[in-house]
Amino acid sequence: MAELDLAAADLYITLSEYHAGYEHALGALKEYERGADERRAAEAGWALGRSCVFIGLAADGDMHLTKALERARRLRLPKINCWIFPAMAQRRIDDGELDAAERLEEQALELAWQISFG
Predict the structure, then answer these.
(1) Percent of the chain whose pLDDT exceeds 70
(2) Rounded CA gap, 70 and 16, in Å?
(3) Is residue 85 a contact partner of residue 104, using CB atoms and an 8 Å limit?
(4) What separation in angstroms does the CA of 68 have from each of 63, 75, 76, 116?
(5) CA distances from 19 to 12, 23, 49, 106 (A)
(6) C-alpha to C-alpha distance for 31 and 115, rounded to whole angstroms
(7) What CA–CA distance (Å, rounded) separates 51 from 37?
């Protein structure tokens, strides 16, 4: 069920249906954490954090994105890191912290470059 929830979360977020994405991402995260699937928990945390940012739950979004980033770094999942940084940047943009957002976007681009060409 967690895989379906995560897939549904990604689809709803892509369609800008952030509340539905939030519900599915939350379900997936709970199930992956219960099953100790850290990689999938990182992905679900990223989806949940993105949803939170777009529905106005900034503090929750930061928490979920930070946890997802910590998991991705611990598991050496650079691709997920590349996904997380732009979501964190969006949160900073919403708060008018454009310099902080730019630094996060630069980190994402640098990491993507390393993955692709490094």
Answers:
(1) 98
(2) 26
(3) yes
(4) 9, 11, 12, 22
(5) 8, 6, 12, 29
(6) 29
(7) 21
90-94: list long-range contacts, CB under 8 Å, 24+ apart: 90/50, 90/53, 90/54, 91/53, 91/58, 91/61, 91/62, 91/65, 94/53, 94/58
pLDDT digits (tens, 9 = 90+) for 30-85: 999 998 899 999 999 999 999 999 999 989 999 999 999 999 989 988 778 778 88
pTM score = 0.85
Cα–Cα distance for residue pair 55/45, rounded to 1 Å: 15
Q: Which tokens hold the place of 93?
A: 């943009």
3-state SS assignment for residue 16: coil
